[in-house]
Amino acid sequence: MVVVFVLVALLVLAGVVAANWYLWRRLFRDTTRGPGPVRRAGAVLITGGWLLAIAAFAGARAGAPFWLQRILAWPGFLWLALSLYLLLAVLAAELLRPVLHRLLARPAVRDSGPGRDGRTAPARATAPAREAAPARETVPARETVPGGPAPARATAPGGPAPAPEAGPGGCPVAEAHPVSGQAPPAGEEAVVQVPTRRLFVSRVVAGAAAAAAVGTVGYGTYGVLRGPRVKRVTVPLAKLPRAVHGFRIAVVSDIHLGPVLGRGFAQKVVDTINATQPDLIAVVGDLVDGDVKDLGPAAAPLAGLRARHGAYYVTGNHEYFSGAEQWVEEVRRLGLLPLENARTELPGFDLAGVNDLMGEREGQGPDFERALGDRDPARACVLLAHQPVQIHEAVRHGVDLQLSGHTHGGQLWPGNLLAAAANPTVEGLERYGDTQLYVSRGAGAWGPPTRVGAPSDITVVELASRQA
């Protein structure tokens, strides 16, 4: 098993190195004429970005001073998102590269003017013509002495351009290239445009790819820092009494308070939830990434959550990376009610909650029998469970609706494809037998404070009675 793990790790490392070498080649080597400061700067940028990213993750796991974690987190995590979209943009631009080469390889065309029948003849391809250049002034010939320099050749106004000067052995001296301004080697005047065109195309493609990647990451980061938007979903429940038709649950998951998202972000989440005026608030895990001593002030605004039937909380997998017991006590101090494999009876339905699967490592895993085993099956039941994969146990225990998070909706496209491979539902509402599952994309972000194709949300789930 250890050998397999090492081989997989080496393959992943080789893939990352190859991808970054490809990025450096397309963005820096192919856009410059030769070794120099630009290529060196590109190597430093890519290498330094990955070192910062590794340091950001290592610092968080090793419990580095919180001020250091904050310094490393912003550039390190943002580099992960930027490098992903740089790679995707450069790969996509490979389709554009041959098209640009063909367009630029077309020779210049000149209108041949009206023909004998009065119609314009088709344009003919012509090489760059010197006669189109402005007429040169006549320069008096200089006197020469034997063995001295050759006399300058005069050019009559409007006359033909002079023939190229002869070099050693009578060979013509190549003139400077009209774009680069550099004289080509002797005998290569017809080939000199090829590398110049290739360089131009490489610069255009690299610039477009870089602009697309920076724009994508910038907009995705703005979307996270702006705060989550509210979604509204109506979920009919067969067992729900008519008296509680329209009961509203504000579902928020994956806030991920940490070195990047702090107190100001938590306040935005609280204000957004309170503005919906919910009947109940459900915080379904991954509230934090860090210790209470570092993030206690960031989580303090949660004490301002307001709902008629209170705010409830269940753990997510990241709480067990940060010390779940300390956070259970902290949220209880802030006024939230933790549901640790427990159930409470509300008017018209039962509300239950189970611990996250990650708690099994500490003997605190989900216990569905404890939470649901002795309940009245005639009553509707809503279950809070962080991970969507817990739906299968929910179905076996006759739950009517499970509310989950965890997936972030993929967070960074095409991460939704990976999330779909690991979760039965990535986002939204789906039915599993008689049980419905709603998965929120989450309010915050983990790692890069960026979302692409999976905007953050707080969902107001409105329960509907089929008897109404």
Describe this structure in words.
With 468 residues, this protein is α/β, with parallel strands linked by helices. 39% of the residues lie in helices and 15% in strands. The protein is built from 12 helices and 14 strands. The strands form 3 sheets. A 6-stranded mixed sheet has the order 3-14-4-5-6-7. Strands 8-9-10-11-13-12 form a 6-stranded mixed sheet. A two-stranded antiparallel sheet has the order 1-2. Helix 6 (263-275) links the parallel strand 4 and strand 5. The longest helix is centred in the middle third of the chain and has 34 residues, at 193-226. The chain starts with a helix and ends with a strand. 34% of the residues are buried.
List the helices and strands and how they pair.
Blueprint: H1 2-29, H2 37-62, H3 66-93, H4 96-105, E1 109-110, E2 124-125, H5 193-226, E3 229-237, E4 247-252, H6 263-275, E5 280-284, H7 292-299, E6 311-314, H8 317-322, H9 324-333, E7 337-338, E8 342-346, E9 349-353, H10 368-372, E10 380-384, H11 391-396, E11 401-404, H12 415-422, E12 428-432, E13 435-439, E14 457-465
Parallel strand pairs: 3-14, 4-5, 5-6, 6-7, 9-10, 10-11, 11-13
Antiparallel strand pairs: 1-2, 4-14, 8-9, 12-13
Helix pairs in contact: 1-2, 1-3, 2-3, 3-5, 4-5, 6-7
